[in-house]
Amino acid sequence: MVLPARRGFVVLTGEVGTGKTTLLKTVLDTFAAGRIATAYVFNPRLDVLDFFEFLLTDFGIPPTTRTKSAMLLQLNSWLIERYRAHQLCAIVVDEAQNLSWELLEEIRLLTNLETSSEKLVQIILSGQPELEEKLYHPSLRQLRQRISLWCRTHPLTSEETQSYIEERLRIAGATEPVFLPEAAELVYHYSKGIPRIINLLCEHTLIFAYAEQVNPIPAHIVESVGLELDLVQHPFTISFSAMQALMRRSLQPNMLDTIHPSPTARIHSRKAKYEPYLRCSSEGG
Predict the structure, then answer these.
(1) How far is residue 228 from each of residues 5, 48, 176, 225, measured CA to CA in Å?
(2) pLDDT tens for residues 33-55?
(3) What is the DSSP letter of 173?
(4) Residue 62: burial class (beta carbons within 10 Å; 0-12, 13-18, 19+)
């Protein structure tokens, strides 16, 4: 594993909604309590002094003064103490594609905090595909040379989407299929395999099906929800590189022709009926 090896930078990139934050927290939770100290930067739009102050505070170190040199000395002393106690320290920066060029350089310089053989702190940068593009900029070649591991999350395939839906429903207590196979296939078509959109689409589909007292759920219910959420005309925007990959894996264009659609007029006539359910769902989410 890279974290115990104290090897500097780890970079995790992936499209919005593909589970990067969940994956990070799951990995960090695998360490025994007290084995690792983590500073989690969830909003990287900070200036340099704010960033160092945030790091110290999240590590539980009260800043003695708000100067860069003093805060670096405090951090270095604390990291050495943790190292002598055989404990790990990690700085996790989420949404790292929003880091300024200046702050990226400051983060790179943190890897100079080291012993003669090991780094004192592990740094994890997590962000959207734009982060990867940013790290290939010539001005960041020194940082890029210190990256020991690149990880990428990808949208689910059609088969993985169906398994994901079934597993989520099983955990919730389902003992028999809830979505017909063609309905699960249509969930993949609308969501492009992105878990966050799968969750959104399935949640609303379950509410619609409950209101209609339909079980198992057929494809036309999923299509109705997809139209209500405007996923046909205005799908959730993804990066250009991810769109290229998805187009290679997408369903055949005539797939929808094999599904009996519900009339548009019927969809809009239901809107008032379903709005209370959708409002409760949104407020609960």
Answers:
(1) 49, 44, 27, 5
(2) 668 899 999 999 999 999 999 99
(3) T
(4) exposed
Higher pLDDT, 243 or 107: 107
Count Cβ neighbours within 10 Å for each residue of 119-133 and write b for 16 or more, e otherwise.
bbbbbbbbbbbebbe
SS3 152: strand
Residue type, 151: C
User: Which of 25-39, 64-78, 167-181, 225-239 is the least confident region?
Assistant: 225-239
Burial label for 15, CB within 10 Å (0-12, 13-18, 19+), is buried
Spatial CA neighbour of 28 closest among 64, 81, 20, 205:
20
Q: How far apart, in Å, do the first and last CA atoms of the chain sit?
A: 35
Do residues 127 and 96 make contact, with C-beta atoms less than 8 angstroms apart? yes
The reported pLDDT for the residue numbered 203 is 95
pLDDT over 70 (residue 256): no
Evaluate if residue 214 carries a pLDDT over 90: yes
Question: How far is CA 90 from each of CA 25, 150, 263, rounded to the nearest angstrom?
Answer: 12, 16, 54
Domains of the chain as residue ranges with CATH = 2-153 (3.40.50.300), 158-284 (no CATH)
pTM: 0.76
Rounded to whole angstroms, the Cα distance separating 47 from 118 reads: 28
Find out whether 190 and 201 touch, Cβ atoms under 8 Å.
yes
Statement: residue 199 has pLDDT above 80: yes
